[in-house]
Structure formats: C-alpha cells, structure tokens
Amino acid sequence: MKLTKINRSSSEELALEGADVLGGDYQANLAALYQRFNVKCHCSHEQAVTMHIRKMQSSGLFFLADNPTSPLHHNNCEFYSARKNIELTPGVEQKIRPFELTTQFSDKLVMGGQTRKINSSNKKMHPRNVMSGLEGLFVTLISNAFCDYSFGGFVSIKDVITRIKNNKSNAKIKTGEADLVSNIYFGQKGIDYAKTKVKHACTKPNDTNEQPISLWFGLVTDVGDDYIMFSNKRLSCLGMYQPHKASGPYLAMGTIIKDCKTDFKQILLIPVVSKSIVLPVYSELQREKVLALQKWVYGRNRSGKYRFYIQKPLKPIVDEGKIVLADLLVVSKNKATGDKIVLALAGRNTARISLVYDSETIKLKHVNVEVVSQYFSRLLTEKRKNSALMRE
Questions:
Q1: What is the pLDDT of residues 327-374, one digit of tens each?
Q2: Beta partners for 132?
Q3: Which superkingdom heads the taxonomic lineage of this protein's source (predicted)?
C-alpha cells in the first residue's frame, strides 16, 4: 500500500510510510499530520484516494476520512476495511444507514427508505436509509456516469442516457437476471421499446422470482398526482415520487413492469437546471446559482492548465449520526497533477460541511461569479508562490 502526504499550504506531495500512520501510536501519528497534511492512498490504479484528518468534537480522537469527491479504496486496501468498520461516536444511536450504491434493483426496493419495525423483545427500529430505493437507483446511475458534473456547456438528455448506459459500473447492476442498462430507454419511442422488452422478457424461463423491469427517462414540466404529460400525451402511474421542492423541468425516471394497468408503476421526478443543461438540482436557489456560474466555468475551461467544474453532490454523507450534503461544489483541478481546490456552497451547516468536504464553505445565497472568481484566483496565486519558494 503506497501512501503520500500533501502539504495543505504548498500542495507539495511527499512520501509517507504506512508505519508512520498505522504503526505505533495511531492517535499521535494523526495528530502530527492534523491541519498540515492530507493523505493520499494509491491502492487503486485508476485514481488516488485523498483523505483528510478529522477530530471528533465529542471525544477529541483523530481519524482519517475519505474526501467525498474521491473514489473508493480497493477492496483489498487496509483503509477500505477500516472505513467499512468505523463505528459511530459512543452514545450516538445509529438511526441512519449510509448511502450505498445500488447493485440489484427490483420494484420491491422502491420503498426501501421507510423505517420498519423488527420482531424483537426490545422493539428497536432498523436504521432508515438516506433515500428511497428508487432515488437510490437514480443517484447510483447518475453519479457512476459522472452526470452530476457540469463543465459549463450544454448537456442533453441523450448525452446523459448515453453516459449511463456506457458506464462500466452501471453495467454491473442487475434487474432479475438481466443487465439493467440493456433495459434503459428514453423519449417517446423509448416507452414502446421498454414495454416490448418487458413483455418479451416475461416469456422467457426465469430462475428468479424477480419481475423484469425496464426504466424510462424523459424531460417533463407538466405533472399531476398520478400522471405526467409527455409529447402531448398523458402517461399514468401508480406512484409518483417527488423528493425535492424545486419546480420543473424534471428528469423523470419511470419503472415499467408486466401487467401494470398504468403506463408506469412508479415515476421519480428530479428537478434539473434546464432542458439544455440536464444536471440535477434540489432547489430553486441551486438552479439559479448553477445558471449564474455556467458561463464563468465554460470561459475558464477554454484555456489554462486547470479544469473547472460544478458538481451537484447527490450521495448524502452520514457524519456522527447526522446527514450532511453540500448544495454545490465548485472545483478547480490541475490537469497535470490532478490536485484539486474545492469550494463548497451550502445553505446551512457550513462548519460541518467544511469539515466533511475538507474545503472552505460559503453560504449559497451569497454566491456570485465575482465571489467564486476571487476565491480561486487567491488560492491559485498562493499555490504558485508556494511552489516558487519550494523550488528556490
């Protein structure tokens, strides 16, 4: 397992022995790095996993936390098992189950976000999921395909569906015995194809009891309690799920199964920035700020050694028993080294979000192009000066 440490002031990357972290006095090792260095784990051949050192307010203990924007550790990595087995702070009841990527989907999982009682003498409750099974599938498909990123240009629904279907991680998701991506469709003709696919699949022998499912995606604005309007047609559903308050346009995701008396069994409605920028947003203010920053991001990406993008975090993080989710992230990435500068935007809980995302956080309502531009100009200038001093 190869480790390196990153100086938080100069971004200089230095060698770090595993024993200097995991050996001897673990707490003393982390205390020596705290607020001075981040740690990179190179267990994955694709991209290093950046970690930062955090201090629990309740106990004063230090621990390594993966940056939310970093990939997962390799499953043979020591930090992979360490992160999987980390326990909540003593005395904190585990009421929330952390988000996990969907690997198997059926219509039975749609209401997976509900808290259920279990049969036991103490009548404890199962920890509730951070979202329903249907939204969990949506988040898995979108985040795997990096459709929660905006680089300042236009993104159509065709672009989104193409990325979803071509993604290797999404290709591993099963519905019954079939690959889910082979059952994903969009647009007007896609509804007919999806229904035909389900009908055809049901005529084949099946070793499982799972219903074959097709998924359909479409951009809609006119919706009712049990229907959507698409291409001047009214499409009905048994269950409508609209977990976020922003108005349309929506990216609708509908499930189609055999012998359903409506067009869809369920429809999930997720607001997007616009029909030409198909990026999820959860509030009107998020939409407003993305639109305000789009042109600036696009302009910065036309030249230079840095790549800029806006990310809409979709996967909630459970931190000491509480759900934490930044509204938006604005990121600058060095094209040569991969080093990132992250600015988190949040409507509330800015201090906790700064800790979790290891970044500076500003109030979403105060965000404009000038504020963001000045922030990155200042930090990038500081990095250049520090790099020049290190060379001397």
A1: 999 999 988 888 888 999 999 888 888 888 888 899 999 999 999 999
A2: none
A3: Bacteria
